[in-house]
Amino acid sequence: MRAAGGVGGFVRDLATLVKLPISLLSTVSAATGFVAISRELRPPLSATLGGTLLLAAGAAALNEVIDRDRDARMERTRDRPIPAGRITARGALVLALVSAAAGSALLWHHAGPVPALLGAVAFLWYDAVYTPLKRVTAFAVLPGAIVGALPPAIGWTAAGGALGDSRLHALCAFLLLWQVPHFWLLALRHADDYARGGFPTPASRFSPAQMGRITLGWTLSTGCAALLLPVFGVTRGHLAPLGLVAALVLLVPSALTLLRAGTRPDALRRGFVAVNLFAVAVLVLVAADALS
Q1: pLDDT score, position 8
Q2: Please, what's the b/e burial string for 17-36 (b: 16 or more CB within 10 A of its CB; e: otherwise)?
Q3: 41 CB contacts (<8 Å, ≥6 apart)?
Q4: Which are the contacts of 238, defined by CB distance < 8 A and separation ≥ 6?
Q5: Does 3.90.740.10 match the CATH number of domain 6-163?
Q6: Most buried of the four, 8, 52, 179, 202, by CB within 10 Å?
Q7: pLDDT tens track for 100-122
Q8: How far apart are CA 42 and CA 229, in angstroms?
Q9: What's the rounded Cα separation, in Å, for the pair 245 and 251?
Q10: How far is Cα 247 from Cα 158, in angstroms, rounded to an integer?
């Protein structure tokens, strides 16, 4: 590895390599799962978050190793540290494996075997199933969404919750549904770029009008899944349902824009931001309700 722009540049490259925003979101969802069942901040919360973050970072880095040649063809990814030559593929591979091993060990020794195994499944599913599958089908996100649904289960089981609990299933289902509009909106915004990289996207299968309707459907389904969280007992207080309704009210206008504007860049950008902010708001509301 070599730094571009000194220590600050190297840190930025590492953050890009491990897809830090996505890895942090996985960690936040694990924290939400933990406090949703424990209803307090207690051990092994810190170990659970550290292990989840390390596993997510390792999975992201390995993904960039695998996709480095295709990333080099795409405008939005060609300046990533591996295709740009600032970090070697071998160095990134070592970092990915060490990070994943450390995360698994941290979970195993401090949170238990079930959270560790769930973390390992998420790591393997992301890089051994989703990453190669997205090269051959525009619908890879459907099985790939399992990865994003597992972090809450890591936190839940680390806090002593049961995998068979319907409250956990409701929380995981929300995150599973959210990932479809999240990915499709991103893929539609950069459809030409994905085509240059050799990745099929929904834009190659549906018309703009069809994509607007489909994405709207997934977005509203995500909103409905959030509203069901109090029904399943994920939240217990009176303020959480009101917060969920308020968040959905803010999401709906951006979602309806997709129906009217199809694949217009401004509509896709607003929809992408809105659906991601909605997911963060839901996680924060669930955690706040549990700790109140």
Answers
A1: 86
A2: bbbbebbbbbbbbbbbbbbb
A3: 35, 291
A4: none
A5: no
A6: 52
A7: 999 999 999 999 999 999 999 99
A8: 23
A9: 10
A10: 29
